Amino acid sequence: MAGAAHDHVRGEMDIAEQVATFEFFNTMTKWGSLFIGALLLFLVLWFCTGAGFGGAAITAVVVVALGVTLLREKPESAAAH
User: Fold this and answer.
1) Could you tell me the residue ranges of all domains in the chain?
2) Rounded to whole angstroms, how far apart are CA atoms 67 and 77?
3) Angle at 19 between CA 22 and CA 8, to 5 degrees
4) 30-58, pLDDT tens digit by residue?
5) 59 neighbors 51 (Cβ within 8 angstroms)
6) Which residues touch 56 (CB under 8 Å, ≥6 apart)?
7) Residue 48 CB neighbours (<10 A)
8) From CA 73, how far away is CA 52, in angstroms rounded?
9) Cys bridge to 42: 2, 32, 60, 77, which one at CB 3.0-4.6 A?
10) Confidence band (pLDDT; 50, 70, 90) for 12?
11) Closest Cα partner for 60 from 42, 47, 48?
């Protein structure tokens, strides 16, 4: 049986798995949103405008390239540690 509630000491539990899950979820949300947005842009431009396949593909590639550039992980500065 677990100990009494007053045996718990705040801040002593290893939360490495929770931190890893949180970071994974945030990463997947960020990149998934970028690629879903680019796919929607591609499909809308291809089927709903006169841009055609080529114009839609070029625009989607530019959006993905810009998104990857802006959303990639930044190196941590030495002052932060």
Assistant:
1) 29-72
2) 22
3) 125
4) 999 999 999 999 999 999 999 999 999 99
5) yes
6) 41, 42, 43, 44, 45, 46, 49
7) 9
8) 34
9) 60
10) confident
11) 42
Separation CA 32–CA 35 (nearest Å):
5
Q: What is the pLDDT of residues 17-32, one digit of tens each?
A: 999 999 999 999 999 9
pTM beyond 0.90: no
What three-state secondary structure class fits 80? helix
Token pair of 26, please?
A: 């945030």
Eight-class DSSP state of 6? G
In one letter, which amino acid is 54? G
Tokens of 23: 């970071």
What would the DSSP string read from start to end of 49-76? STTHHHHHHHHHHHHHHHHHHHHSPPPP
Three-state DSSP at 79 gives helix
